[in-house]
Design a protein that fits this description.
14 strands; alpha/beta
């Protein structure tokens, strides 16, 4: 499952510490998958894996030490955590890498439930990742102290769900993030940081079976049945997004290629010839394109993490303190 590290302008757990949350995400998912699979196979309910409880105890000891010696920095531990991110080898087969939990265990609670009895292991996986999707949304809209109001449309967003559930764990997703460039907010489309490149994706999904025909640099023609309509070229927004990311990368010495993708799952793109650096993915090519991305076996890379962090450093965030959130809920 790809990791949703930024959703619009919502507070994200990854903003707090990108160095550890990706591997923590993988570890948590692996542990809970083992638990629910064991429950499904044996019928026994395990409230908590014993090795997780031991890790939490060790982490509490570590936190106490840090409070007693706030100015002492363990360089070796820091370097080891960085090395873990570089080495972690992730695939769709529920891969895992060692990394200790570093927050209060209450913020890490994800307990999948057998709401029905799946007949096959594949059905169990489907149920598990559907429940984990809701947990991902929690991580992408809250921290220990803050929380953002989530638009319900994102819970019903089939493209977001498809990307997160199909792509591997080593992909980091920015979904319509709002960045602050020269003090002005700019909403981008979809950015996916893979280990080897940055994908900038603009989505064309309006009427089903629509055909988008490129006939000039500024305007395209959209045909739905016998109806035709002139629309602004989607390449304008795509190129704008590329330039924003390119500028951020240059300012932070990020050496990562940027590839642009124009995507429609329910329509067709008619573009004469080819365009350098742009992939046109329509209804005919979408399954193959997603399949290729999903087969990635490359481990997370240092430059990938640096690139993602450089974007996170420019995002706009709107959130509320949890105390305010809880007070408002009580008043309701």
């Amino acid at each position: 499952m790809a990791q949703l590290i930024k959703l619009q302008d919502y507070i994200s757990r990854y903003e707090i510490d990108l160095a550890r949350y990706p591997t923590q995400f993988i570890r948590l998912k692996q542990n809970q998958w083992e638990r629910i699979k064991y429950q499904w196979q044996t019928g026994e309910t395990i409230e908590r894996w014993e090795h997780i409880e031991e890790e939490v105890k060790e982490e509490k000891k570590k936190s106490l030490f840090q409070k007693l010696f706030p100015f002492k920095k363990d360089v070796e531990v820091f370097e080891e955590e960085q090395e873990d991110i570089e080495k972690v080898n992730i695939s769709n087969d529920w891969a895992v890498e060692e990394n200790a939990y570093q927050e209060e265990d209450t913020t890490l609670i994800f307990e999948p439930n057998l709401v029905y009895t799946p007949k096959t292991l594949e059905e169990l996986k489907k149920m598990f990742i559907d429940q984990f999707f809701h947990f991902q949304m929690k991580w992408a809209s809250s921290t220990l102290r803050e929380k953002s109001y989530v638009d319900p449309k994102f819970m019903r967003d089939t493209l977001l769900r498809s990307m997160l559930q199909t792509l591997p764990d080593n992909y980091l997703v920015f979904y319509y993030p709002i960045l602050r460039v020269k003090k002005a907010p700019i909403e981008l489309d979809i950015i996916i940081m893979t280990p080897t490149e940055c994908l900038c994706i603009t989505v064309l999904e309006q009427e089903s079976q629509a055909v988008y025909i490129a006939n000039s640099e500024r305007f395209w023609l959209k045909k739905v049945g016998k109806n035709e309509k002139k629309v602004l070229s989607p390449l304008i927004q795509l190129n704008r997004m590329e330039k924003v990311i390119e500028q951020i990368f240059q300012q932070n010495q990020i050496e990562l290629p940027i590839r642009k993708v124009l995507l429609t799952r329910n329509g067709y793109i008619d573009y004469p010839g080819t365009m350098y650096g742009v992939s046109f993915v329509d209804k005919r090519k979408f399954p193959e394109w997603m399949g290729q991305l999903a087969r990635s076996v490359s481990p997370m890379k240092h430059m990938q993490m640096r690139g993602a962090q450089s974007i996170l450093n420019t995002v706009q965030t709107t959130s509320f303190h949890r105390d305010i959130w809880n007070t408002e809920n009580k008043e309701d």
